Amino acid sequence: MTDTAPRPTLEAVAARAGVSRATVSRVVNGGDGVRDVLVERVRKAVDELGYVPNQAARSLVTRRHDAIAVVVAEPETRVFADPFFALQLRGISKELTAHDNQLVLLLTEGQDDHARVGRYLAGGHVDGALVFSLHLDDPLPELIQRAGVPTVFGGRPGWSGDRRAVLYVDSDNRGGARDAVRHLAGLGRTRIAHITGALDQTSAADRLDGYRDVMADADPALIAEADFTPAGGERAMRELLDRCPDLDAVFAANDLTASGALRVLRESGRRVPDDVAVIGFDDMLPVAEQTDPPLTTVRQDIEEMGRLMARLLLRDLDRGTSHAAPDEGVGDTPSSVVLPTTLVRRASA
Q: What is the residue-level pLDDT of the chain in tens, covering all 349 positions?
């Protein structure tokens, strides 16, 4: 066995900096009222001694845990297979790390998981929650409200009623869908189909509405429901070819769905884009640039969405208010953020 050096204490830092223990405590815990010159001396002493604050003691002073729950309302098999979640989690993680906060990942697959997450949030283990991929019948919003945890949602919440200034970050799903379908129509395509996402999620519903904004008189048979997965895209594409063999374009609700549709079109002997033009949504480069042909798609900045969610929540906590102050360019009144989308043209349309 080897002896370990004792951990530096507040008293040791105070002695090294030539200040009181109370002054060190205020500096370490982010308190006010300490002159800049003393702050610098304390920070220098902290670095020299390698002092690490005791989190439990710090929490008693600051009433903060420096931990944020990230709740994804999907099973782990979906989360770890879909690059969308990796991009959003990366954005969240970067922002939390920059502010020395820990990410606590919570996934839900069934009713037991919802109850577990609700108990964890109500137990005071984290300062706030970032929640995304909600479904319309999801009990999580009610559980979170009951827990009283400051929360920012990823995506426009789909519930009705007043939730008192619910804060969320989303992309312009409806506008992006309109741009995609208008592009297909501009190519001279007249039988434009749509493969939806899971319609119990607002992003899918908004993209369907965007399709209908442009194709108001479209044959209902040109719409096939899927679930944002490659397998769902394959199933829906087969249905569409059976029902509407003369279709000449497809707008898919996301890139993974489009990748499945492309496989079925290739198997059926349809040439893309000559016979059928295809557009996706997301612009996830590991998918969009690797399809055959490379995928024309609507780009949303998924990583930036995650970063903004985390930033809004952290500013909320720093201000000690019930909702975060909006990010740059949004104004002083708390409000949700909807990011613009952009059509990225590649070879599929």
A: 445 556 787 788 888 888 888 887 777 766 667 888 888 888 888 888 887 765 545 554 555 668 999 999 888 888 888 999 999 999 999 999 998 899 999 998 777 788 888 888 888 889 999 998 888 888 888 888 888 899 999 998 886 555 556 889 999 999 999 999 999 999 999 999 999 999 999 999 999 999 999 999 999 999 999 999 999 999 999 999 999 999 999 999 999 999 999 999 999 999 999 999 999 999 998 899 999 999 999 999 999 999 999 999 998 787 664 443 444 433 454 578 999 999 999 999 9
Alpha-carbon distance 197 to 182, whole Å? 19
133, 139, 140, 142 alpha-carbon torsion, rounded to 10°: 130
